[in-house]
Design brief:
Elements: E1 2-6, H1 20-25, E2 31-35, H2 40-49, E3 56-61, E4 64-69, H3 72-78, H4 81-91, E5 96-98, E6 103-106, E7 111-114, E8 117-121, E9 132-134, E10 143-147, H5 157-162, E11 167-171, E12 176-182, E13 185-189, H6 200-212, H7 215-229
Parallel strand pairs: 1-2, 6-9, 10-11
Antiparallel strand pairs: 2-4, 3-4, 3-7, 5-8, 6-7, 8-10, 11-12, 12-13
Helix pairs in contact: 4-7, 6-7
Length: about 230
């Protein structure tokens, strides 16, 4: 992981604010840039400016801004989760919408995050087709997915909690974990609240299969597993 930290008041190395976007766009895959003392308006301006850059993930927390660039491995794993959710909801007679890395932010708590994937399960009429969610007005997603191949997302959990995202699935390339919001913080749980028969370790072999043997083979095997184990 490459980590670059620039501070707005950092003497000779100071990067003028208009040049932030140039620096961000020059980051290599798997890199992370940390900026401090960024106003909410500057954060929102960057969201607009970088809107068509899907390889970036921005996380904002009370003036601190982290920008991460995705690696091919990261993106490869990320694309598999919508297949899981599609099969799980089909086999349990419900529905969902996937909003991908839609920005989740709320100016009232001065926080914002971009998940690798996020989903509304069951009820979603109020948010369908939105590119950016203002969680001071819009309902939070039911589920967010974080892939941690090169950059760790545990520090994002308090932000997700502020934004009231009900469940977070986290995969670090080796371990899969489920976190469920209880009150104001997340508790690691052995099964998903949305799919009570699903444990995090169940997904690991299917993730590897999707990366090595192909998505169609993974989908067939996962559907067979769900049909045999759903409650």
């Amino acid at each position: 992981m490459n980590t670059i930290t620039e501070h707005p008041n950092a003497g000779p190395g100071f990067i003028p604010r208009p040049q932030y976007s140039d620096l961000i766009l020059s980051l290599p895959a798997g890199a992370r840039l940390s900026l401090t003392e960024i106003s909410w308006q500057e954060y929102e301006d960057l969201l607009v400016e970088l809107d068509e850059k899907p390889h970036l993930r921005l996380t904002y927390d009370h003036g601190d801004l982290d920008i991460m660039t995705l690696s091919p491995e990261h993106e490869g794993y990320s694309r598999l989760f919508t297949h899981f959710i599609q099969i799980l909801t089909e086999e349990t007679d419900t529905d969902f919408i996937a909003l991908g890395s839609t920005t989740l932010h709320d100016h009232l708590v001065e926080s914002g995050v971009e998940a690798d994937d996020c989903y509304y399960i069951g009820e979603f009429a109020d948010v369908a087709e939105k590119k950016r969610l203002d969680l001071s007005q819009d309902p939070p997603p039911d589920l967010a997915v974080e892939i941690d191949i090169t950059n760790r997302s545990l520090g994002k959990l308090p932000i997700y909690a502020l934004l009231q995202v009900k469940e977070v699935w986290r995969f670090d390339g080796n371990e899969m974990r489920f976190y469920v919001l209880v009150g104001s913080q997340y508790v690691e749980q052995s099964t998903s609240n949305w799919f009570s028969f699903l444990a995090p370790e169940t997904l690991k072999p299917f993730l590897q299969q999707g990366r090595t043997r192909g998505i169609n083979a993974m989908r067939r095997a996962f559907r067979d597993w769900v049909q045999a184990n759903k409650k």
